[in-house]
Write a structure and sequence with these properties.
The protein has 388 residues and is α/β, with parallel strands linked by helices. The protein is 32% helix and 16% strand. Helix 11 (318-324) links the parallel strand 13 (312-317) and strand 14. Helix 1 (38-54) packs parallel to helix 10 (300-307) and helix 6 packs across helix 9. The relative contact order is 0.11.
Length: 388
């Protein structure tokens, strides 16, 4: 049976992305499976918001990663607790069998929790659906490819679909209507204070017109705009009297140092700084929330900046935009590379990895994006001011 938003008692009418199934009865404990990185979690958060609204008396437990736990624990939101996933192939941290003993112990412990509903927001289900079924929940919902184990209610997993929409369509199978269309992460007061300290005063500091945060990293090297392009953008921002702060994890330190050197180095001391490899996750939240704009690639910190309310200007390969780009354009601008083949060997890159294995080359797919139009959008977004 399918229902519309207006058929559901107590549900505020809103955008129906998919027909809503009947809600399950007696749901008190919900498990949500979502491994992966920071961006993966953020894409799933609107679906978790929908579950929380549809089942307001239920406790929601995220089965996630240490990074997810560090971001969500102690933060207001729909997730009541985070259980760390064991090493399991196709679910978390393992390309092979993972750790079968740890996985068995995890499932024993989770079955003792007595979940009423388990929701798979992780992928096509080849590995994640059996993992979810082993939780022993009364009801199961998720996505599946043709070779995946079926759950009680499923939607087909087709690669080219925006991840936020994919997971909202999935939880509609549990009768959960959208209440948000973009991830929202609430910034704690201490995070904002620390972020402003790290930025040298943050937004509104009279010494600068604004703070431009640059994030040059991305998990997939092919998504990375060249350091030279980021450096040229930084030079233009500095010439406009903005402070430029480069952020990233430890792997981004060499690139960040190169950007700083190319953009002015010691001559720009106090106006241009790298914090790459030096921030905790709460500090990164504060820095992003205190910035006036983030410029970066398709990456977790870009998605996090948007989630904490900071405008973004980002560089995307067109295929990644379909799956993970911002949905709005007033404060979130994108610049696209239309490259569809490896720049080195010419292999077609339009198909996802499980249907056509990628070549061994890591050359940038977005190097063709020009600095001028990106910086024009930075100026336009900064001129809009902040709503908050």
């Amino acid at each position: 049976m399918t229902m519309t938003l207006t058929d559901l008692p107590g549900q505020t009418p809103g955008p129906a992305l998919a027909p809503l199934r009947e809600r399950f009865d007696g749901i008190r404990r919900i498990a949500v499976l979502r491994g992966g990185g920071l961006g993966d979690l953020l894409f799933a958060m609107p679906a978790v918001d929908a579950l929380a609204a549809a089942y307001p008396d239920a406790r929601i437990t995220l089965l996630g990663t240490p990074l997810h736990k560090a971001l969500l624990e102690g933060r207001p939101g729909p997730v009541d607790g985070v259980e760390l996933l064991p090493a399991a192939r196709g679910v978390h941290g393992a390309d092979d069998a993972g750790d079968p003993l740890a996985t068995a112990r995890f499932h024993d412990r989770m079955r003792a929790e007595g979940f009423d509903l388990a929701v798979q927001l992780h992928g096509g289900g080849r590995y994640s659906n059996p993992f979810l079924l082993a939780l022993g929940a009364r009801h199961t919902v998720g996505t599946m490819t043709g070779d995946a184990a079926p759950l009680e209610r499923t939607v087909p997993y087709l690669y080219y679909q925006h991840e936020v929409v994919r997971w909202l369509e999935t939880v509609a199978q549990a009768g959960a209507a959208p209440v948000t269309m973009e991830p929202v992460i609430r910034v704690l007061d201490e995070e904002r204070r620390r972020g402003e300290e790290l930025l040298g005063g943050g937004r509104g500091d009279s010494a600068f017109r604004g703070v431009v945060v640059v994030h040059p990293g991305a998990t997939d090297p092919r998504r990375r705009w060249p350091a030279e392009s980021f450096a040229e953008l930084a030079r233009r921002a500095l010439n406009d009297d903005h402070r430029v702060v480069v952020v990233g994890d430890a792997s981004d330190v060499p690139t960040a140092e190169r950007i700083v050197a190319l953009a002015g180095g010691e001559r720009m001391r106090g106006r241009l700084v790298s914090l790459a490899g030096a921030l905790t996750l709460p500090e990164l939240v504060g820095v992003l929330a205190s910035a006036d704009v983030l410029v970066g690639n398709d990456s977790g910190p870009r998605h996090l900046a948007q989630a904490v309310g900071t405008p973004t200007v980002s560089v995307y390969w067109v295929g990644n935009l379909i799956n993970g780009g911002p949905l709005t354009r007033r404060e979130h601008r994108v610049h696209l590379s239309w490259t569809t083949a490896c720049p080195v060997c010419g292999q077609d890159s339009r198909q996802p990895g499980w249907t056509a294995e990628r070549c061994e080359h890591d050359d940038s797919f977005v190097a063709e994006v020009e600095v001028g139009p990106v910086f024009d959008d930075v100026r336009q977004v900064l001129a809009l001011g902040r709503r908050r």
